[in-house]
Amino acid sequence: MDCKTANELLPLYFDGELDRATSREFEAHLDECADCRAALIGLDALRGALRKDAPRYTAPDALRARIQENVASAAPVSRRPPGTRLSWLALAASWVLAFAVGGVTLAAWNHASTSEQEQAQLLRDLFSSHWRALAAASPIDVVSTDQHTVKPWFAGKVSTAPVVQDFSAQGYALIGGRIDYVGTERVPVLVYRHGKHVIDVFVLPGAATRGGDEPIQLQGYVLESATLGGQAAAIVSDMDQAELTRFRDLLDTSSLSHTTPGDR
Amino acid sequence: MMSTSSRAFVDDLALRHLDAAYNLGRWLLGSEQDAADAVHDAYLRAARASDTYAGGNERAWWLAIVRNCCLARLAVRNKEKKNVPIDDNPIAAERWMPRADADDIEEALDSTRRRQLITRHLRNLPENFREVLILREIEELSYREIADVLQTPIGTVMSRLARGRALLQKALTDSGNVEDSHGL
Predict the structure, then answer these.
(1) Chain A: nearest CA to B76, how far in angstroms?
(2) How does strand A231-237 pair with strand A221-228?
(3) Which of A220 and A178 is assigned the larger pLDDT?
(4) Tell me: the pLDDT tens digits for A55-85?
(5) Apex B160 CA angle, B46 and B129, nearest 5
(6) Model pTM above 0.90
(7) Are A50 and B119 in contact (CB under 8 A)?
(8) d(CA A236, CA B90)
(9) What is the pLDDT of residues A207-235, one digit of tens each?
(10) Residues of chain A found within 8 Å of residue B143, distances taken between Cβ atoms
């Protein structure tokens, strides 16, 4: 590991966000690099100072009492974590929101009516999410090769559970999913593996509009737009163009046998 | 329409993480009264919106609402160009100063100076950086949780955290030896 890489990983290591294998590589570098050791000690000293000397203000009793008053006035009932079942009203509301936001995101995606800057920001979000996932302790929140496990996991976490299909027969195995942010939106991300390549499929809110978007490259990674079950999606990976196109075609055709927006 | 069970969930959540909420509000708004009011607003809003909680980290969901209420207050404050007195007085300071029984008076003085110094520098940071530092270093949230609170990509959390740490480190270094600080 060179110093430049180590420097980028240093905060991740310090904050416990690196996976074990990368942590070990990082520690090996640390043994032989005094600069990185010093940087790490610096971060630790700062944290020490903050935890010791920056006040953690505790809520005043009056505030606690004010809230407890409200609590007491509500009917005492048994506790069940919500989110497992949404009321139809909340569901309807989330749909309206998904469509409204979808319009915004898609506009940015199609760079028809928005500035280059927003477009660039969206691209940065997608790429950085992919890179961060590659370096993270848990690139996937739900680890499963079974589409019937991955799809329900998304339900209730995002407004639209995406179409999930495994393509291991074609060489693109489903390995799980996670939720990430694109702008301020929570979006489902499907994670596939092809050989040694990890592929992220970001399912963007809103209906798909297949325009002949050119693939975009950044530091050896490629972003290509696709459709998934009628929704716009973005594929990010370091596969070569031919493999990527083949995967995109698989995704595009998979949508035909699944839900259409009319089913909602 | 409010489901009573999800209401109970919000009550429990708010009370369990009341200190975290207040601490965030206090650092964002700088004033005891404003922070308490913002957290109370957040509680009412969370109770109304409890049906919209769609899984995920609950503490992050709650703190995101608290933060939004604080930012709303900041926006009003900026618009009205109102100067809210920052609670800087020794009485407010006593609240978080434990152990009045510090053996050594010198030691106690040093520690007070260190606290004043770091509090001042933290307060001087732009709120973008201040809030990630509070959430990461004091509330000990993970990157993912912070991203949920800020409703922003994790990459943004990482860059703000790095920048905030660098700024604070520099400010502390520039102000030099704590013992020599002029008690500004």
Answers:
(1) 22
(2) antiparallel
(3) A178
(4) 899 999 999 999 988 877 764 443 444 433 3
(5) 65
(6) no
(7) no
(8) 54
(9) 554 444 677 777 677 888 888 877 888 89
(10) 15, 17
